[in-house]
Amino acid sequence: VQLVESGGGLVQPGGSLRLSCAASGFTFSNYRMDWVRRAPGKGPEFVSDITSGGGSTSYADSVKGRFTISRDNAKNTLYLQMNSLKPEDTAVYYCYRPTGDWGQGTQVTVSS
User: Fold this and answer.
1) Please, what's the b/e burial string for 1-22 (b: 16 or more CB within 10 A of its CB; e: otherwise)?
2) pLDDT interval class at 89 (50, 70, 90)
């Protein structure tokens, strides 16, 4: 199993980023997938999840209305579109399969 995140970077407050997670080694379309983040000095925080077929999503209150999770099962890829970014969104963002598999993470820094 391999989960590889990309798309992080430095962005100003109010800006946008799109994270991607390329999955391999398992049947991606069979699994619900999550985005989880970890801010400096804090524990892991659930951000969003999406059902295996993409028909249902959920979000943490802190990102609701600003972030959108999606997936392309034909490309074995999970996405997180992040808009109206705030400094408190600064964290390492991880792709997570709820059988215990994590990616290596991608750093998102929101700062002016």
Assistant:
1) eebebebbeebeeeeebebbbb
2) very high
Supply 31's token pair.
Answer: 């699994």
Residues 55 and 69: their CA atoms lie apart, in Å, by: 11
Query: Which 3-state string (H, E, C) describes the chain?
Result: CEEEEECCEEECCCCCEEEEEEEECCCHHHCCEEEEEECCCCCEEEEEEECCCCCCEEECCCCCCCEEEEEECCCCEEEEEECCCCHHHCEEEEEEECCCEECCCEEEEECC
In angstroms, the first-to-last Cα distance of the chain is 37
Torsion 2-94-63-108 (CA) sign: negative
What pLDDT digit, counting tens, does each position of 22-67 carry? 999 999 999 999 999 999 999 999 999 999 999 999 999 999 999 9
Q: Which two tokens stand for residue 23?
A: 């999955």
